[in-house]
Amino acid sequence: MKKTYFVFLTASLLSINAIAQSLQEGITHLYADRFKNAENTFQKILAVNPNVIEATYWLGQTYLDEDKNDEARQLYDKALTTNGNAPLLLVGRGHVDLIDGKTSDARQRFETALTLSRTKKGDDPAILTAIGRANVDAKKGDLAYAIEKLGLAVQRDPKKADAYLELGNAIRKANPGVGGGEAYTNYKKALEVDPNFVYAYIRIAKLFETQRNWELFLQNLNDAIAKDPNFSLAYYEMFYYYFYNQKYSEAEEYFKKYTNSRPNESQMEHDFLNSQLCWAKKDYECATAKAESAKAAMGERVKPRVLRLLSYSYLGKSDFTNAKKYIDEFFAREKDGFVPQDFKLKADIYAGAGVPCEEIYGIFLAGAAVDTVLQTKIDYLSDAADYFKTKNCKKQEADMRMVIYNTRSKPNPAVFINIGILYSQAGDFKKADSLFIVYNNTFPDSIYGYDWRGRVNFTLDTSMTVEPYVSNLIQSYQKTLAIAENDKIRFKPQGTRAALTLVGYFNNIKADRDSALAYAQRGLAFDTSNAQFKSIVDMLSKGSSKQPKTPSKTGNNKPTSKAIRPEAKDALAKK
Questions:
Q1: DSSP secondary-structure letter at 408?
Q2: pTM score of the predicted model
Q3: What is the DSSP letter of 558?
Q4: How remote is the C-alpha of 132 from its chain's centroid?
Q5: Short-list 84, 45, 81, 87, CA closest to 62
């Protein structure tokens, strides 16, 4: 009898050990992004024993990683009908609630799971870790709550590697940009307690990626591969490292290693990576074919990144109709957030499709809004301004350069001269004038602001009779001429333009032959061989300035010589 009991006990232990081993295999598949293998492993366990709670929980986690949220919800709901008091299943269902945005329902399930699993020693570390994992993964998760529970988990079980991993994830997510050091400490602790927990190397590598420390990034990926040469996710990260660094032969090598490490997985992911390689090689037919294949395989669950790649690929083919269709679908579907380059892509496609600069300007502005780093935001805006320059969209280029000015922490008003010129070329003369005023007040000894202010005010009133434009015009050109006379060679264009305009004003409008002659003589000083000024000086010198002017019937003086057309009238057109 005792012998029989021993045989049964041994068989039972063997069964438990086999389940535990299979569970670990499935979890390793999941961490390595071998989802199909993970699904198959957990389903095999459940086929033998449907009451293995851990297998049900991890199968649901696999579905969630694959964005099969409905399948996860159905799985947990069905399991809870027969195991309603299973804490781990309650946490899994609460995880789905968080993804659905039902935060109150999720918290209630988490707290119930803790109550049901609590012993005299305290809360169950496995349940604490699962609660932390759910809150880290879901957008609506409470990261402070996650950190609290994961901190308790490692206190209750200092050997629980996955709790340290999730604690590092929670800290990093809760404190972007500053939580890296503490996250790193927890990832390293995970490896201390379980040196074979390869996924921790990936998380450390991703930390160094954000720091652009590529040496340590690659070192940790290689450490992962050394520990597990079949760890697919390490090859995936290697692929993208070389792909983004435009080392396409190395990227292709790691693409092959990635696909070889997951032969039973969906062809969809492989087609997607392959399509990126085709795009990089400018083989757009291949790129669109592979990406369309991936899209078809995903069906209604198509991921936005596939739509983005299709947009890039059709843009490469100059097929703007399909490119616009997919970029619009991408923007409609993307939920995880955009990067500035998404908007640059949209702008390029819209421009090719004939969308006017006014609408494209709004696209670029939206792209700048998603960039939280000042310098990269400025770089992006500068690229946008250069884009409008190539398209000869003066108004949008000027507006964009004003945005850049207002974005800088220490802007320099010197840029107002060039921005004002752009506005004047775009026909927004009043905006240009306002910038030239600021420029002149900041740089009172510079000729350029006075010269351009004179030009735009002349364009605003070519009759030189309407205030305040005429006063602005005369004051600006008088100042321009005075500065130009300090360096007649360098400022010859500005000096001659100002002198000629002032000659025209005083001769034609004010009928002041003496002042007109004086300005003509000052203009001639810039170029003694200038035929136009010589002619004006000769003409104005013929009569005596002391001769009385013939009064008009209205009492106003008329010019005593023929009208002189100021050059400034065509100044903006020539620029």
A1: S
A2: 0.74
A3: P
A4: 30
A5: 45
Q: Which residues pair with 551 in a beta bridge?
A: 557
Dist CA 423 CA 107 (whole Å): 56
Residue 122 pLDDT exceeds 60: yes
Structure tokens at 207: 């930390």
Structure-block tokens of residue 196: 């074979």
Q: Which amino acid is at 59?
A: L
Domains of the chain: 438-574 (1.25.40.10)
Which amino acid is present at 565?
R
Q: Taking Cα atoms as reference points, which of 530, 502, 529 lies closest to residue 517?
A: 502
Residues 6+ apart with CB under 8 A from 75: 56, 59, 60, 63
Instruction: Give the residue from 85, 107, 90, 89 showing the smallest Cα distance to 98.
Output: 107
Backbone φ and ψ for 540, nearest 5 degrees, come out as -75, -20
**Signed CA dihedral, 156, 18, 62, 169: sign only:** positive
Q: What is the mean pLDDT of the chain?
A: 91
**Residue 547: which of 534, 561, 565 has the closest Cα?**
561
Give the pLDDT confidence of 192-239 residue by residue, as tens digits: 999 999 999 999 999 999 999 999 999 999 999 999 999 999 999 999
Helix (H, G, I), strand (E, B) or coil at 101: coil
Burial of residue 5 (number of CB atoms within 10 Å: 0-12, 13-18, 19+):
exposed
User: Taking Cα atoms as reference points, which of 445, 414, 394, 415 lies closest to residue 572?
Assistant: 394
Q: Give the SS3 label for residue 119.
A: strand
CA atoms of 83 and 496, how far apart (whole Å): 94
The answer to whether 326 and 314 are in contact (CB under 8 A) is yes
Q: What is the DSSP string of 432-480?
A: HHHHHHHHHHH-TT-HHHHHHHHHHHHHH-TTS-STTHHHHHHHHHHHH
> Which among 339, 326, 386, 385 has a CA at the least distance from the CA of 366?
339
**Two tokens, residue 476:** 């600006």
- Beta carbons within 8 Å of 422's beta carbon, 6+ residues apart: 394, 395, 397, 398, 401
Beta-carbon contacts of residue 77 (< 8 Å; ≥ 6 apart): 93
Distance of alpha carbon 88 from its chain centroid, rounded?
A: 39
Nearest to 89 by CA among 102, 70, 101, 75: 75
